[in-house]
Each structure stands twice: as structure tokens, then as C-alpha cells.
Write a structure and sequence with these properties.
Elements lengths: L5 H6 L20 H10 L2 H6 L1 H14 L5 E2 L6 H5 L4 E4 L3 E4 L6 H6 L5 H4 L1 H14 L10 E6 L1 H10 L7 H9 L1 H25 L3 E6 L7 H22 L7 E5 L6 H5 L5 E3 L6 H8 L4 E6 L8 H15 L5 E5 L9 H21 L5 H4 L1
Helix pairs in contact: 2-4, 4-8, 8-11, 9-11, 10-11, 11-12, 15-16
This protein binds coproporphyrinogen I (1CP).
Amino acid sequence: MLANDTFLRALKRAPTDYTPVWIMRQAGRYLPEYNETRARAGHFLALMKNPDYATEVTLQPLARFPLDAAILFSDILTVPDAMGLGLTFNAGSGPRFAHPVRDEADIARLKAPMIDPALRYVTDAIRQIRQALSDAKGVQRAPLIGFSGSPWTLACYMVEGGRCDDFRWIKSMLYARPDLVQRILDLNTRAVADYLNAQIDAGVHALMIFDTWGGVLAHRAFQRFSLAPIARVIARVRASRADAHIPIIVFTKGGGLWLEALAASGADALGVDWTVDLTAARQRIGKQLALQGNLDPAVLLAPPDIIRTEVRAALDAYGPHPGHIFNLGHGILPCTPPHHVAEMVEEVHTYSRALRQRTSESDPFYSA
Ligand code: 1CP
């Protein structure tokens, strides 16, 4: 039972009283309370791997803002970490893998992780967050989103060994030895599907696949190395958890050119970045899918009246139709003032309510 199911209704493209909103990286460095908890934990990995801390920081943004969903506090790199690649985080330089996957011998050693026990800290955190979100009668305040990286995005980190600008290792492997990249992707597809299934079993209400690096691929390469494995992950989850009907959001950063292809992946909703026009995107993907997005995160650095104008423009672009989930086009910037987030959330809720009231349900535009 959920006190607020607006987000889940929007994912099903059912009518809602207002447009639901949550924020990518909503529990993160722009919040002083997050930085405080991270300092207590010692470092990012200690924070993420401890279900008590993970629960605490997952709830922090919901205590501040009336957000319509919580997202599990974790990271996409949990999966390659569980494969034994030796993940560390250095302040400033981001994630590093001690054992990147660079050749055939490295690939031969790779194994899909046993979710239990390797990733039990994630499923434990999900169960604990669900408890913390519910009142004495078991009514949940808001739905909980689980997530994974896409097989391709995980492969980028596994082969490059960390953050990178030019993707030189994985792209040279992709063109010279596509069979090797395909082997990594096949393994990741299995691992990601198992991981998402375990998150469903632990109690998430929706799932998101972050394809952060799909947009760096050439057109043909995108279809084969990013999109096809995502579609296989979704098919596996659907086949093994058919009764659960857990909605899946696919977000390919820089994927605006490929919306029709992404819409055929089996996803229930597509996340879009700020390069996309929501009016055109809605028309292109048709009536079967919801859309999530897409304010430029940098808008939140502008004064509040500008933030409100930009929020209204995004809501107007989608229009009063069912199936919009408001979000940023990518993760919130660490330098964002928290009170600017409050302005954004408030404007999404009030303006989207007014937008629906102005548009009669009998208006053919509404049901188009
Ligand atoms: O210093 C810190 O406190 C760590 C910053 C941080 C945070 C807050 C990292 C390190 N991960 C996270 C949490 C996180 N990561 C979430 C939590 C849920 C939420 O609130 O949204 C999620 C969904 C992620 C997913 C993630 N991690 C992605 C995909 C989404 C995206 O932003 O594109 C990626 C690419 C990562 C890798 C990663 N983890 C952390 C950093 C700094 C990075 C990026 C490294 C790079 O630049 O390549």
C-alpha cells in the first residue's frame, strides 16, 4: 500500500492530479546532511555498502522536499565490484578499478557474481528502506526505485578502469575484436538481469537502467552494443518475474536520436536528457511509453524565478497528457543550492495541477 502512487500511475500513463517529480542523484553532495553522513561513514564505498547508512541517505531528500519517489542509494559500479575488479573511490578522481578487463585472458576470468552473498548489502538496504518508508500500518510514503547500469555502460568502466574522456580501450576493442566486447556484454546482461530480479524480490516498486555512455557510440554500434543488451535484460526480467509487473525506465544519455528504437526495447518509460524536445519526443514514442525528464541540471544554478520559468516550459512542452515524470536530464550538480530544488519541486506540483485544470478532459488534445 502506497500513500502516494502518482509516480507509478504516471509510469503506466494513467491520469494523475499533478506531474510527479524525483531527481537523479537526489541523495548526493549538494545536501549538507549527505556530506555529514558520508563523513561519518568515512568514504563513499563505506556509505554505500552499509544498509543503515544507505537507508539514512536515501530518506534525506524526502525529508526536505515533497518528492514523489525515493531511489535506492547505491551505485552502478556495485556489479563490476562484485565481479572482483577491485573498486576504489578517490576524492576528486572518481571510481577506479584495480583490475580492468583489457584482453581475452581477463575476459576468460570474468564471472557473473552470485547476487547473494556478493550484493546482499544492496538487497538488505532495499528491505530496510522499505521499512523506513512505511508507517505503523505498513503504508509506504512513496515508491522506491531500484536500478542498475546498462551492460554497455558497465563494460565501459570495466574496460577503461574508471572515468574516461575518450573511451579509447573499449572502443578500440569494439572495432578490432567485437567478439570480445560481445562476451563482456553477454556476461553483463546475465548479471544485470539477476541483479534487477533480486531487487524486485527485495521490494522495489520500479527499476531504472542507466545507460550513461550509450550516447558515445556510433549509430550502428549503439544498436548492437548498447540497445540490444538492454532489450535482452528487460526480456529476461519480464520472463522470470512476469507476475510482478515492475515498470522499467531506460535512460540513454545522449540517446535523443534513437527514441523510436529505445521505445521498442520493452521499457515502460524512457528517460531523456535536456537536448530533447518533450513535445516531439512524446509524439515519436507513441502512447505506450511514459517519458521522464528533462530539465538541464544547470538551470538549478539560476535564480528562482528563472527556475520556475524553465520548469513551466518543460511541463508545457509535454502538455497535460498522462505519462510524464518530471526529472533533470542528468544527475544534480554538487554545487546546487538546496533551496533551488525546493523551488523546482514546488513549481512542478503547482503548475502541473493548474495545467490539468485548464485543460478539460474532453479536449481531444488531452487524450491524443
Ligand atoms: O563523493 C561522493 O559522495 C560520491 C558521489 C556519488 C553518488 C552520490 C557516486 C560516485 N555515486 C553516487 C550515487 C549514485 N550513483 C546513485 C544514487 C541514487 C540517486 O540518488 O540517483 C545512482 C543512481 C548512481 C548511478 C551512477 N553511478 C551512474 C549512472 C547515472 C549517471 O549519473 O550517469 C554512473 C555513471 C555512476 C558512476 C559514478 N559513481 C560515482 C561517480 C562520481 C560516478 C561517475 C564517474 C564518472 O564520471 O565516470
